[in-house]
Amino acid sequence: MADMIPLLPASAPRPAVVHDEPAGHTCTCGEAEAAGYPELDARQLPHAIRHAAIFGALDSVLPGGGLVLVAPHDPLPLLAQLEERHPGRFTVSYLSRGPEAWTLQLTR
């Protein structure tokens, strides 16, 4: 319990945070952004949260950015949901098509 950090009340002033990291990278993990688009291997995600995790990742893609998605099957239902949620926001390009994995590049 000694390692617990108390939460600040919502009304408390927040300390200024200075980042010495590449543009677009605002956390304090200390890691540098890799070249190219980040890759999300959805095969490693539990099925119950797979789509939610993918949408969470896509929500963080800035205009001009992208994400490489590796899926265990052709993600046509996911792509339909994506188009329904964000019409025309992403361009989808297949990099490989099965049988073990489908790899897509989603560009915003």
Descriptive report:
This is DUF2249 domain-containing protein. The structure is a single chain. The protein is an alpha+beta fold. The protein has a domain at 39-107: 2-Layer Sandwich (Translation Initiation Factor IF3). It is built from two helices and four strands; from the N terminus they run E-H-E-H-E-E. The protein has helices spanning 50-59, 76-85, and strands at residues 39-41, 66-71, 91-97, 102-107. Strands 1-2-4-3 form a four-stranded mixed beta sheet, covered by helices on one side. The longest helix is centred in the middle third of the chain and has 10 residues, at 50-59. The protein is globular and about 35 Å long. The chain starts with 38 loop residues before the first strand and ends with a strand. Mean pLDDT is 83; it is low at 15-22.
Give the helix proportion (percent range): 10-25%
- Work out the number of β strands: 4
- CATH architecture descriptor name of the domain at 39-107: 2-Layer Sandwich
Largest beta sheet, briefly?
4 strands, mixed
How many H/I helices?
2
Unreliable stretches (pLDDT < 50, length at least 5) are: 15-22
Radius of gyration: 18 Å
- Tell me, briefly, the overall form: globular
Q: What would you call the structural class?
A: alpha+beta
Strand sequence of the main sheet, in spatial order?
A: 1-2-4-3
Organism: Cryobacterium zhongshanensis
Protein name: DUF2249 domain-containing protein
Domain DUF2249: 39-108
Pfam families: DUF2249 (PF10006)
